[in-house]
What does this fold into?
Amino acid sequence: MPFTLPAGPDVEVETEVKHSRFLAVLRRVDGPQAAQGFLDEQRRRYPDARHHCWAYIVGDEPAQRAERSGDDGEPGGTAGVPMLQVLRARDLVGVAAVVTRYFGGVKLGAGGLVRAYSGAVAAAVDAASPVGRERRHLLAVDIGHDIAGRVEADLRGRGVPVVGTAYGAVVTLTLAARDPAELATVVAEVTSGAGELVPVGVRWVDV
It folds into this structure.
């Protein structure tokens, strides 16, 4: 199962190796453009830093996954690739990592740089509490306004992901399910048989 960062603010962790400071920041991103925007933002945030090394993995579907990394002036293969390897080892997708280095005056050598950059990202991932991602069926159900709040709360309480709520003449809930038949049983129970599920596609969701 792939994992990603939970919704919320960036994850930031600072480590120090032989007086060099490594500021590792992780962000949930939905594509290469967002990852590049994140890198640009970190460069603007720390303009006086010597290096802003980066790595990202995006794309839930394995066949559509994109992986990139960069050393930003560090010796080739000592920063971006080790950072990327940590993301791979943790099965992370939709995640970009930027490690900003403030040089401390002591050269670390190739092995030291690999350990410093990979360690910084690993520490940030450890602080992030990643969540799983699953490809699920999407189904919509129309509910009367008078019971919509209770039904949505009941569904969430049973662990059913509610990925959309639309208000019109009725309230339309979009639900995600591993097993549509099992979800149909749950919906029948919480709506006293009034809710009818309509398939509307598939989607990767946090679980």
